[in-house]
């Protein structure tokens, strides 16, 4: 399992624009680089990031081989009500990791 970091405020007022930052440590490999034996290393990248709030998709990103080894994504959304964010990263070789974080709206 990769190490994921999620940064978002714990609380917000209704109508506030909040910033969400995510970072996942993942051994990215483009599929173009030769290994020690000269053979091309197989591609191993995160291909998709998805954020849902209470089951509703609010942000999605498709990632490609030129992405950083540890993809960092930041985006904003409007705080409308208290609930749980679900963050999912998917990639080559069946990689699939989901993390959650909660927001309380006053």
From TrEMBL:
InterPro entries given in the database record: Ig-like_fold, Ig_E-set, SoxZ, SoxZ_dom
Residue ranges of every copy of the Sulphur oxidation protein SoxZ domain listed in the record: 9-101
Pfam family membership, one: SoxZ
NCBIfam families for the chain: SoxZ_true (TIGR04490)
Name the UniProt record assigns to this protein: Thiosulfate oxidation carrier complex protein SoxZ
Organism annotation: Methylobacterium soli
Annotated gene: soxZ
């Amino acid at each position: 399992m990769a190490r994921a970091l999620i940064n978002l405020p714990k609380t917000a007022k209704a109508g506030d624009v909040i910033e969400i930052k995510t970072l996942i440590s993942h051994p990215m490999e483009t599929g173009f680089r030769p290994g020690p034996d000269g053979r091309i290393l197989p591609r191993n990248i995160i291909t998709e990031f998805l954020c849902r709030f209470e089951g509703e998709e609010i942000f999605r990103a498709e990632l490609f081989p030129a992405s950083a080894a540890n993809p960092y994504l930041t985006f904003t959304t409007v705080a409308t009500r208290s609930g749980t964010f679900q963050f999912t990263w998917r990639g080559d070789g069946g990689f699939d990791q989901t993390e959650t974080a909660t927001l309380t709206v006053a």
